[in-house]
Design a protein that fits this description.
Length: 450
């Protein structure tokens, strides 16, 4: 828990030191990860060999705990959080590493119900600095920012005596820094769809192959994917790797898939070591699992929803959730008009796939932008051709460059019976969330909800 003994001046200094430590880590760019298939022609295995080398330099802290490893195109953050909560409900000392963060970097690292403290984050970065310098003259050079974040997570979990750790993959799987874990008890792929195609490949088969790189010998593997060709690929890789294949059958909704997958993962993980999780513990864990900016209703009258959907699969889930919510009666929480605030990260190549389903259901659309550190969106004017093509005939569209001003305009335009949703970018949803939960609040309380 955060210390209540710090004076305001001490707290301010701690937060300043924390932000400097974050800036130091982020100075090690992740940009190179986007060039696996570019002119450099570097063997992609380099991007896994590098964090392996770095983990070896720091004493392989990842060997100190049992691990669950989760990837997929959509839902992996939700499934990871649910799995973590079930393990906690079962009395396990468990850590959670997720990516990306919503408002501030400490949200990536969690033990029990609390994020890493800003002070401990600073101390861990200071501890790692000599090893980072040592790595610069090694065979793979300096670690990337994400390599360092993963190392911080491993040290944090080891120092706090975690028995279990749930790791959400950052990108893909096969060459992701989290894949330095050698013997996960359970591996899982939520589903496969088009995302980060410039890195993972332009076909679903290539994307699936990359994500299936987390499947390891002795692990129990689970997936909610339903396409026969991809399931066949997963079965083949499980057989090659000596892993057990488990398939979650077709469910009614994305939420049902996620809950059943998380329950299955947690049960299999504990069972692998001779333990057992009860249905009551599963129910308690699922009931406690909450994530910011995952279709988060942060205000009512009017409804304001923050949603980090940023690819085709996620936006389809968001739109389905909106349709279900809109069908409800007014007294049960339904809404009349839908006012959408939308921005799309400059790393995305599927603007149409994100905008088409959203524009088709919105009554008012504000195209906006976000720029904060490495978090940048495409210029909102570039979104207009897609919005105009797919919007409802009477829908209105406006470009508002500042995201907070777009929210202000949306609030002014909304009646109490309307719904405002900010989506299309995890960065956008996280930035607007600061109007309810400022960064300082999260840093002080080490949690995302009151």
């Amino acid at each position: 828990m955060p210390s209540r003994s710090n004076t305001p001046q001490q707290q301010t200094r701690i937060f300043e030191d924390y932000r400097k430590a974050v800036a130091f880590v982020e100075s090690f760019s992740n940009t190179s990860l986007r060039n696996n298939f570019g002119p450099e022609k570097r063997d992609p295995s380099f991007y896994l060999d590098r964090p392996r080398w770095f983990c070896k330099l720091i004493g392989n802290p990842e060997a100190a705990f049992k691990c669950v490893h989760i990837t997929g195109t959509a839902g992996k953050g939700s499934v990871s959080t649910m799995t973590h909560e079930i393990l906690l409900a079962a009395g396990k000392k468990a850590g959670l590493f997720t990516s990306p963060y919503v408002t501030t970097t400490i949200e990536k690292f969690r033990v029990g119900n609390a994020y890493i403290s800003p002070k401990e984050f600073v101390e861990t970065v200071e501890y790692l600095k000599p090893f980072i310098e040592q790595a610069k003259s090694g065979p793979y050079g300096a670690p990337s920012a994400f390599d360092i974040f993963v190392a911080i997570a491993f040290i944090f979990f080891k120092n706090h005596g975690c028995e279990w750790v749930v790791l959400e993959v950052g990108l893909g799987g096969r060459y992701d820094s989290t894949n330095v874990i050698e013997r996960p008890a359970v591996t899982a792929i939520t589903n496969i769809d088009y995302d980060h195609t410039e890195i993972l490949g332009k076909t679903l088969g290539l994307i699936a192959y990359d994500k299936a790189g987390i499947i390891k010998n002795g692990s129990a593997f689970f997936t909610t994917e339903q396409r026969p060709a991809l399931l066949s690929l997963f079965r083949k890789i499980c057989k090659e790797q000596g892993a057990t294949f488990n398939h979650i059958p077709k469910q009614k909704s994305y939420a049902d898939y996620n809950r059943l997958l998380a329950s299955s993962i947690a049960k299999a993980a504990v069972s692998a070591y001779g333990g057992e999780i009860t249905q009551a513990q599963i129910d308690a864990g699922l009931a406690h699992a909450k994530l910011p900016c995952r279709f988060e209703i942060i205000q009512e009258n009017p409804l304001i929803i923050l949603d980090g959907a940023h690819n085709r699969a996620k936006i389809q889930s968001t739109v389905e959730n909106l349709k279900q919510l809109r069908r409800k009666t007014k007294t049960a929480g339904g809404f009349k008009r839908l006012i959408a605030i939308v921005a799309i990260s400059d790393t995305k190549k599927d603007n149409r796939a994100i905008l088409e389903p959203l524009a088709a259901v919105a009554d008012v659309i504000y195209a906006t932008s976000i720029e904060k550190g490495e978090r940048r969106s495409v210029h909102p004017a570039a979104l207009l051709p897609y919005i105009e093509k797919y919007k409802k005939s009477k829908a209105t569209v406006e470009v508002v460059l500042d995201a907070h001003m777009a929210l202000k305009k949306a609030r002014a335009a909304a009646a109490a019976s309307d719904c405002i949703i900010a989506t299309g970018s995890f960065f956008l949803a996280g930035e607007l969330r600061t109007e309810w939960y400022p960064e300082e609040w999260v840093l002080e309380h080490l949690k995302s909800f009151r």
